[in-house]
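Worked example 3. Consider a protein that binds D-xylitol-5-phosphate.
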Amino acid sequence: MDIKIFPSILSCDFRFLKNEIKKIEKSGADGIHIDIMDGHFVPNFSMGPKIVEAINKSTNLFLDVHLMMYNPFDYIERFIEMGADMISIHFEATENIEYLLKYIRRCGKKAGLVFNPETSESMVVNFLDKCDQILFMTVHPGFGGQKFMEKVLDKVEFTRNLCNSLRIKESGISKKSKNFDIAVDGGINRENSYRCIEMGANVIISGSYLFSFKDMKKGVEQLRKR
Ligand code: DX5
Ligand code: ZN
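Given these inputs, the predicted complex is written out as structure tokens:
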């Protein structure tokens, strides 16, 4: 399975946003992860639609918008208008998960579902056929640069095993779920990326580790290694 790497733009130097995006483009990464925080669902603020628009105008890379906010429905359309290719919503942030995932897909975008470290992975089975990616937070959402939480590895393994044992029915077509995207986000570096991949993750999101490289390409290569 191909390993996809997404640098999290939250860790960039915002004084030089355009250069930082160029850095990502040159690194061979598969897209850009953009963290949106509302100050309620998580105790922090980050970016809004204007920044997503600016990033979209600066690159053709795939944009994965991670909504760490309550009432995500109110903003999905706006972030899509601003250039999001994928919208990821939190399991813990809304009651209308199925409806929202469907809505994102009907807008022609990829739909991701995110689980906090404390949320039970047993819920995953209800959504595999309704989204394009399951993302496991490997830190408490809200800040970059935190320490990776080992215990989440079990959730990744559980979900990959589940995917391998199921055939997901999508639009009436039975497709093998083996290639289903499982992502990890938070505190990812060279050592734990390898372990996440071993457990079945194929999408690696990383902020402070990747932006610590002068040449991000080296970091991306490190993270891709099995
Ligand atoms: C945390 C964010 C992450 C974060 C990753 O709330 O969702 O995407 O930016 O950054 P690092 O890799 O520094 O933990
Ligand atoms: Zn994120």
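Take a moment to read the result before moving on. The pocket of D-xylitol-5-phosphate (ligand 1) is lined by residues 8, 10-11, 33, 35, 66, 139, 141-146, 185-188, 205-209 (CB under 6 Å). Strands lie at 4-7, 31-37, 62-68, 86-90, 110-115, 133-137, 167-170, 173-176, 181-185, 203-206.
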